Q: What sequence folds into this?
């Protein structure tokens, strides 16, 4: 659950954010501390694939926005994870 | 920290940096930097930068694995040797201000060849009068028996003058260091103890200070504990004792201590040498010359100071050997680079079309060069990391298998300096092996060359010229290494063939027994105790012979005195040469297996009647008297005032300085003597017992020896229990280590070079298959083709052999110090080495040529 690209997509699902805002958001909702280098590696991958798009720079910080394709990608990934989580939690409860 | 992060950002590809650089920089500022951020940025940048290269390298696994392994072995070998060279020769000593610490020695060409150490009279003169030294100290190794704390034991000790420890900057863990009063004769006797001994004998109790310790039968007050892990150069003593030299009784002579000094700030070694040299002529005015010697003799010594950085006293003779080994592994890296360059060229050939297309489409030459350099860097940095792992394992292996062969080897590690060295080496290697491919595949005419497909074009000829140069270079290096390896093997064989002064040393156990003056003050009684101990040990079942000596062959003892010969040497008032001397008991030669070649051994009546007799070695007899029989009955002595002593026996030679040096001319005296020193009876109190037995490997033997000894005197400790072979192995350890490393490094390099030669020649022939096909189609026979290609191959090999022969002869002179029993220009060695490489060259040319010649031309031309 700490795939940086998934975490970035999940963060942007709430709204447009620049790098620092994504880092603090991810730390809050997933308790994962992404490094600056890791974050921008994920951002460049997501942008290349068209899952997010860059907005105009504001005071040396560039916000990013989730594209419809990115939104679908996030849905697909979370849907794929859901049964794993469900079964895992169920089995833990049983054991 | 953000500065480091910004530096790490430079590793990102330029385009990525242009797009995301500003944002990333702002984020780093916002998040406050820190090492984690720096490392994360560096890791991601490296991943991004190398991912393309890694992908390409992963697509060619055979090429990549071969190249990485080849380079990693070479880098690993270089890193191991560098870590030793750095630890021993380059890194400053772990002492306060090590650059101003010097070892103070002497030379006296009129007395002895090689270095001479310090004497009390030089020490007092320098300490009183030298203007360039902050202070000077003297020290010597010793052993001392301690009783009253468990079983009696003999401990390693260090005797020092009071200035010695402060000079090297030692601070006690508990208590204090020696003062001038501790070092003055007649004062209360004191001792310092090591940290481990403090823990062992006093359970680390600070109240040990002030307690009494019985050392060599005398009570000494413990005044201080040395710091944990204290080492004095390569020594780790348990006891430190003050030397307590008596200035009033000091005479000229007795060079038996080592000197250490600290130079005043700004003073050079040359200035200090001149300063000390100025004091030497007046020393006989300050200290008396022993009776029988004259001022003329003193002047004949030609005594002069020899000062060098203290580090050299630590590294000793090993430095020359280490540089040779370092040079050899350097060659290994060069050959590895040549092989990898060749692999790159071969791989580049298969990508010529790809490069030509890129150039034709307007791609810059710099871009292709960058691509090749990037791949080379990725490959070699990966090899560097693997090489560091190999170096770590290699150093651990050396530490386990050869702990005593290099000083301080156990304390060395693959530290940051070595890692930096390995990675720099890797980066340089990548530059070295990608120069040729870059030069070849970024030329502007590559697309045209591609059209011609290399058939007889100038491009094809250039390509062959490059590879021919590579082959000639590899042949030359291979020959140098093969000659070096073969000279090493000949040295091994010659060393093994020597009888060093004993036979079957693994069955001779040695035990040192010291009977302190406080335990037995009378010399004759002490000699009797040694006789009784010998008889007691001889009665143990399984013991065949026992005898005592002051020193076992190659144990490092180096007691020398002048050697006067009646009617021949030293009677003209001039100083005779000094010779090594040993003091032995009857039966020593029989126990060691060294033959008495003329006359007889000493007898116990010789000892106890204090007869004036001597035995000399065969080489000394031949040198002095022209033969062994001629020596019998002649008379010798070690000072002009002692009585003449008759030579009653001549024994086989002893290689006391190791098998690689000439046998030591040796004089043996009875271990109890009268008038050796002026007007008194002297006995050797500390004797090594040589015990020949078939039970040496049986732990019960040592117990029996202990019981036999303590039955006679329970206060006598046994120490330095080891076999004669152990002593000999230790003495020859550095040479063995150098020979082993050189042999391994040369062997690996030779293998790489041979593989390289074969690979390149075979490739050149295989690349010319089209030419072979055309020649065969035009009517040439298979034999013609084989002859043609072998001729071409052998011409290149012959050129390499010619260069290699000259280079081997030149480089063998560097090995000279390590060679024994073989000349560095030994003709059979060179002939055999040339033959071996030539045969490899013939096979490398013949096999692929024959394969091409036996394939039908149609198939060749189609394929």
A:
């Amino acid at each position: 659950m700490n795939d940086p690209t998934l975490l970035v997509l999940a963060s942007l699902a709430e709204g447009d954010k620049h790098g620092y805002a994504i880092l603090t958001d991810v730390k809050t909702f997933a308790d994962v501390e992404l490094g600056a280098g890791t974050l921008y590696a994920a951002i460049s991958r997501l942008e290349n694939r068209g899952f997010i798009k860059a907005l105009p720079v504001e005071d040396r910080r560039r916000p990013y926005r989730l594209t419809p394709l990115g939104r679908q990608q996030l849905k697909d990934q979370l849907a794929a994870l859901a049964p794993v989580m469900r079964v895992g939690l169920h089995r833990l409860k049983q054991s | 920290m953000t500065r480091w992060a910004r530096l790490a950002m430079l590793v990102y590809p330029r385009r990525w940096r242009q797009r995301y650089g500003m944002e990333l920089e702002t984020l780093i500022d916002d998040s406050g930097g820190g090492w984690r951020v720096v490392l994360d940025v560096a890791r991601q940048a490296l991943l991004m930068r190398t991912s393309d290269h890694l992908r390409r390298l992963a697509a060619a696994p055979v090429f990549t694995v071969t190249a990485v392994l080849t380079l990693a072995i070479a880098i690993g070998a270089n890193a191991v040797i560098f870590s030793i060279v750095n630890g021993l020769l380059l890194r400053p000593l772990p002492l306060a201000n090590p650059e101003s610490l010097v070892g103070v020695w002497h030379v006296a060409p009129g007395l002895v060849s090689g270095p001479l150490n310090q004497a009390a009279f030089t020490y007092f003169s320098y300490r009183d009068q030298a203007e360039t030294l902050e202070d000077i100290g003297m020290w010597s190794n010793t052993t001392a028996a301690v009783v009253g704390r468990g079983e009696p034991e003999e401990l390693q000790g260090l005797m020092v003058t009071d200035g010695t420890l402060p000079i090297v900057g030692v601070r006690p863990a508990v208590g204090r260091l020696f003062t001038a009063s501790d070092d003055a004769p007649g004062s209360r006797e004191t001792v310092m103890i090591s940290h481990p001994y403090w823990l062992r004998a006093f359970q680390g109790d600070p109240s040990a200070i002030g307690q009494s310790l019985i050392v060599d039968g005398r009570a000494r007050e413990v005044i201080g504990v040395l710091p944990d892990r204290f080492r004095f150069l390569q020594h780790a003593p348990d006891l430190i004792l003050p030397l307590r030299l008596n200035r009033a009784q000091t005479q000229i002579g007795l060079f038996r201590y080592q000197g250490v000094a600290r130079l005043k700030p700004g003073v050079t070694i040359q200035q200090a040498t001149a300063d000390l040299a100025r004091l030497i002529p007046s020393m006989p005015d300050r200290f008396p010359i022993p009776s029988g010697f004259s001022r003329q003799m003193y002047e004949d010594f030609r005594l002069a100071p020899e000062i060098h950085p203290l580090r050299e006293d630590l590294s000793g003779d090993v430095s020359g050997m280490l540089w040779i080994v370092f040079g050899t592994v350097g060659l290994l890296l060069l050959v590895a680079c040549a092989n990898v360059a060749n692999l790159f060229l071969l791989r580049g050939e298969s990508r010529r079309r790809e490069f030509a297309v890129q150039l034709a489409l307007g791609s810059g030459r710099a871009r292709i060069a960058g691509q090749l350099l990037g791949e080379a860097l990725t490959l070699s940095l990966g090899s560097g990391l693997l090489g560091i792992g190999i170096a770590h394992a290699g150093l651990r292996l050396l530490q386990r298998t050869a702990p005593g062969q290099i000083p301080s080897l156990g304390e060395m590690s693959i530290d940051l300096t070595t890692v930096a060295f390995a990675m720099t080496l890797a980066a340089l290697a990548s530059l070295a092996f990608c120069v040729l491919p870059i030069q070849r595949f970024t030329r502007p005419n590559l697309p045209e060359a591609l059209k011609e497909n290399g058939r007889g074009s100038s491009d094809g000829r250039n390509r062959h010229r490059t590879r021919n140069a590579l082959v000639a270079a590899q042949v030359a290096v291979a020959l140098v290494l093969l000659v070096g390896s073969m000279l090493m093997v000949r040295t091994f064989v010659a060393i093994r063939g020597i009888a060093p002064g004993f036979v079957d040393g693994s069955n001779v156990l040695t035990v040192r027994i010291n009977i302190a003056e406080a335990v037995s003050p009378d010399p004759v009684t002490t000699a009797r105790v040694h006789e009784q101990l010998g008889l007691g040990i001889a009665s143990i079942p399984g013991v065949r012979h026992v005898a005592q000596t002051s020193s076992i062959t190659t144990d490092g003892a180096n007691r020398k005195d002048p050697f006067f010969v009646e009617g021949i040497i030293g009677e003209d008032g001039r100083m005779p040469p000094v010779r090594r001397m040993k003091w032995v008991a009857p039966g020593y030669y029989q126990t060691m297996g060294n033959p008495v070649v003329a006359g007889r051994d000493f007898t116990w009546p010789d000892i106890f009647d204090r007869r004036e007799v001597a035995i000399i070695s065969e080489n000394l007899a031949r040198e002095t008297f022209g033969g062994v029989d001629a020596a019998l009955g002649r008379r010798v002595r070690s000072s002009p005032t002692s009585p003449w002593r008759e030579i009653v026996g001549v024994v086989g030679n002893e290689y006391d300085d190791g098998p690689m040096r000439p046998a030591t001319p040796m004089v043996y005296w009875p271990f109890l003597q009268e008038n050796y020193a002026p007007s008194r009876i002297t006995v050797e109190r500390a004797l090594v017992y040589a015990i020949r037995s078939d039970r040496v490997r049986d732990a019960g033997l040592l117990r029996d020896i202990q019981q036999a000894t303590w039955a006679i005197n329970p206060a006598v400790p046994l120490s330095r229990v080891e076999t004669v072979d152990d002593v000999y192995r230790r003495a020859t350890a550095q040479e063995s280590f150098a020979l082993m490393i050189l042999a391994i490094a040369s062997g690996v390099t030779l293998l790489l070079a041979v593989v390289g030669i074969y690979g390149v020649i075979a490739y050149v022939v295989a690349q010319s298959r089209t030419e072979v096909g055309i020649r065969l189609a035009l009517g040439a026979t298979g034999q013609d083709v084989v002859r043609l290609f072998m001729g071409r191959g052998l011409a290149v090999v012959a050129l390499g052999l010619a260069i290699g022969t000259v280079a081997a002869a030149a480089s063998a002179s560097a090995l000279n110090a390590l060679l024994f029993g073989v000349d560095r220009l030994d003709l059979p060695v060179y002939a055999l080495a040339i033959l071996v490489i030539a045969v490899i060259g013939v096979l490398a040319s013949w096999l692929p040529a024959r394969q091409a010649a036996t394939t039908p031309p149609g198939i060749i031309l189609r394929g």
In short: Residues 452-458 of chain B have pLDDT under 50 and may be disordered. The interface with chain A takes residues 5, 8, 16, 19-20, 22-28, 30-31, 36-37, 39-45, 47-48 of chain B (CB under 8 Å). The first strand of chain B starts at residue 101 and ends at 108. DSSP finds 28 helices and 26 strands in chain B.
